[in-house]
Amino acid sequence: MDLAVGRGTTTLVMPDQIVSDFKDAGKSGVANALHNGLNDDENQELFGSANPARIAELVLLGIGAL
Amino acid sequence: MKPIVNFAPWPLRLSYGDEEAKLFGFVAELIEGAQPPLAEVKENDADLFPVTQSIFALPDTVERRLAWARGLTAMRWQITRQTQAKVVLGGTLVGFRGIYPGVVEEAWMSVIAKQPLYLIGAFGGAALAVIDLLQGRDRPDMRTENLVKTGSRIFRL
Fold first, then answer.
1. Is A64 near chain B, with CB under 8 Å?
2. CB pair distance less than 8 Å for B143 and A16
3. Among A47, B39, B70, B98, which residue's CB has the most CB atoms within a 10 Å radius?
4. How far apart are CA B28 and CA B48, in angstroms?
5. Is the pTM of this model over 0.95?
6. By CA distance, what is A45's nearest residue in B?
7. Which residues pair with B131 in a beta bridge?
């Protein structure tokens, strides 16, 4: 990492650009956007689950697939 | 390596002394957040954040609010570089010190850096906002014009 990056030199990105980046990333499916080892269906389950055991299981499933 | 790694953003870490250092003990490691680019803040920390005043009481000028916001962004890039994945759950969408809700910014960094990201949306907040946006749902509260009005303290005079 060079000194400039170490000092936090990054382009100032406004919130609208972040919104646009998320929407663009999601167009090819959440699995492609998140790079987390889970497929689209597993990510959908993770998005909606409030069960701690199942959440942990899905995260570990994804990590194991990386 | 200690089991907990705590990233302390600039300028907050400027207020840390012996008492704070003791809290880390043998369990946690402190990593100092980077100072923002000199084009955005004064080189000498004390010129912007005098040691005689509370760091928390100081985001009272445009210059100091920008410094806080950029310090948080710099720290979040450090976190993204020094971690292998992120798990996101909840996260406030109001009253934050940066330009964006912090959890949203960290998730965005992971997405553009192609870092593994796990989103848990059942508890709402920033995680759900990111899920909504990835799935093409509109989130007016995440637009710049609305964050200016209701979300970030950086825009308030």
1. no
2. yes
3. B70
4. 29
5. no
6. B120
7. none
What is the rounded CA–CA span in Å between residue A36 and residue A43?
A: 9
* pLDDT per position as a tens digit, B38-65: 777 777 887 778 777 676 655 677 788 8
Residue B153 identity (one-letter amino acid): R
Token reading at B75: 């720290």
CB A46 within 8 A of CB A34: no
Distance between alpha carbon B53 and the CA centroid of its chain, in Å? 22
B4-8 and B86-89 as β-strands: parallel, antiparallel, unpaired?
unpaired
CB nearest to B130's CB, from A22, A36, A66:
A22
Q: Residue B109 in contact with residue B77, Cβ under 8 Å?
A: yes
Average pLDDT over residues A15-20: 93
Å from B34 to nearest chain A CA? 5
**Predicted-complex ipTM score:** 0.89
What tokens does B147 get? 């964050």
* Helical H segments across chain B, by residue range: 18-24, 45-48, 62-82, 102-113, 125-134, 144-146
Interface of B with A in 90-119 (CB under 8 A): 99-100, 104-105, 108, 111-112, 114-119
To the nearest 10°, the Cα dihedral for B111, B114, B115, B116?
80
